[in-house]
């Protein structure tokens, strides 16, 4: 079937993403800031490469297969609609894939958590010539990446055909293997090109969003380093360094564990964070299984979010500096079991120290807290030396987590411990 399509790519594709169309290098790697348009630009490329090249099929990968549905799959749908070619594609949820109706070329979606489903792919039309690795920072190892890449081989029935993989991510830590493999001059793959993009490479952002990023530079410079400038994150001085990991788990896995909710309030510039935990006291492991993390939330919206995330029936500990909000949630909107967090001398630093006696398993749906774990650092003194006090910035999810854990750290017989009792509890944790 011959299809006539008229798309002016020069008017659509930002200059920073032109290599997606005119560069045949085996690996094109984009690390970028929030709002840099890297994911949407690659989604448009997925559509256009299929239309332009009849031999091309795509595999789109994330660490966890199910996360594709509400991210890469949805973004490619939006891209097809924007390009005016949506009706030329068939979008199916089971299996999760996209088919180009005129030729049968496909976009497959897979996860590295199911490796056999990746390596066994065999398209019926053309070859598996393109891969998009989205949120590649989640990928566990270079070896696993190479295993999948080795499946992209074979003769292409087109003299101008080529294989290519596109890699996109936010660079939260400079210790990740992506840096040495694709960015460091001495060790990078010779068949690769790397790029850093920021919100300034996206001509489609509105002024309010740009203002929020510029405000982050002033208020949370550590987070802005990655989220605004697309630079590598900080490796030194992390408060929870080595104590957290992202891992998938089911509610059945944590069904027998006690659960709690922590709530920290924000509004215009700072998010309201709700962190949902299950705690394994015997093994000192905290499972963070759900979250809401959003700016501009009104009291009713917070109450609705607590209900939607199934907080009712669990103990909810909220920032006691906002007694009015706690009272409104309880008395006006009927949120049960909500109390203010304990306060007192050194309560924050004591809480952080106690928290450091646990390990944290963060579910893939919990993104705000994971970002904070990667950027929450100790403060420095005037001589540029690390202190033992965390910076009071970029910590709304961490504060909510601390409130949730208060039930298991500093409460005895339903009361908040005294300063001396908290000091002893920290000593008993083996960290002081």
From TrEMBL:
Residues 264-406 form the Phage terminase large subunit C-terminal domain. Coiled coil: none annotated. It comes from the Bacteria. Residues 26-230 form the Phage terminase large subunit N-terminal domain. GO terms for molecular function: ATP binding; ATP hydrolysis activity; endonuclease activity. Pfam families: Terminase_3, Terminase_3C. This is Large subunit terminase.
């Amino acid at each position: 079937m011959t299809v006539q399509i008229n798309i002016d790519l020069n008017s659509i594709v930002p200059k920073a993403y032109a290599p997606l169309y005119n560069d045949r290098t085996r690996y094109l790697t984009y690390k970028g800031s929030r709002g840099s348009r890297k994911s949407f630009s690659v989604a448009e490329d997925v559509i256009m490469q299929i239309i332009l090249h009849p031999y091309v099929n795509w595999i789109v990968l994330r660490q966890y297969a199910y996360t594709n549905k509400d991210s890469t799959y949805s973004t490619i749908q939006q891209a097809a609609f924007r390009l005016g070619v949506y009706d030329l594609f068939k979008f199916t949820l089971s299996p999760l894939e996209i088919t180009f109706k005129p030729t049968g070329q496909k976009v497959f979606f897979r996860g590295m958590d199911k490796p056999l489903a990746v390596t066994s792919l065999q398209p019926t039309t053309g070859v598996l010539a393109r891969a998009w690795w989205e949120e590649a920072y989640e990928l566990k190892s270079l070896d696993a990446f190479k295993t999948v890449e080795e499946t992209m081989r074979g003769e292409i029935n087109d003299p101008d055909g080529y294989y290519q993989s596109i890699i996109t991510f936010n660079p939260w830590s400079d210790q990740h293997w992506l840096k040495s493999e694709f960015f460091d001059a001495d060790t990078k793959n010779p068949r690769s090109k790397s790029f850093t993009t920021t919100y300034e490479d996206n001509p489609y952002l509105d002024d309010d969003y740009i203002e929020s990023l510029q405000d982050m530079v002033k208020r949370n410079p550590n987070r802005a380093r990655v989220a605004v400038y697309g630079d590598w994150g900080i490796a030194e001085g992390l408060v929870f360094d080595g104590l957290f990991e992202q891992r998938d788990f089911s509610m059945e896995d944590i069904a027998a564990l006690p659960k709690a909710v922590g709530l920290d309030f924000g509004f215009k510039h700072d998010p309201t964070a709700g962190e949902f935990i299950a705690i394994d006291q015997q093994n000192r492991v905290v499972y963070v299984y759900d979250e809401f993390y959003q700016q501009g939330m009104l009291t009713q919206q917070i109450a609705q979010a607590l209900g939607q995330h199934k907080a009712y029936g669990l103990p909810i500990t909220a920032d006691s500096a906002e007694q009015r909000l706690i009272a409104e949630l309880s008395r006006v909107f009927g949120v049960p079991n909500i109390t203010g967090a304990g306060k007192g001398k050194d309560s924050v630093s004591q809480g952080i120290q106690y928290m450091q006696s646990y390990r944290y398993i963060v579910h893939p749906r919990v993104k705000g807290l994971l970002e904070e774990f990667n950027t929450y650092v100790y403060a420095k003194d005037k001589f540029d030396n690390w202190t033992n006090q965390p910076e009071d910035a970029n910590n709304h999810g961490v504060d909510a987590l601390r409130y949730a854990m208060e039930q298991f750290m500093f409460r005895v017989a339903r009361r908040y411990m005294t300063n001396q009792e908290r000091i002893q509890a920290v000593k008993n944790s083996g960290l002081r």
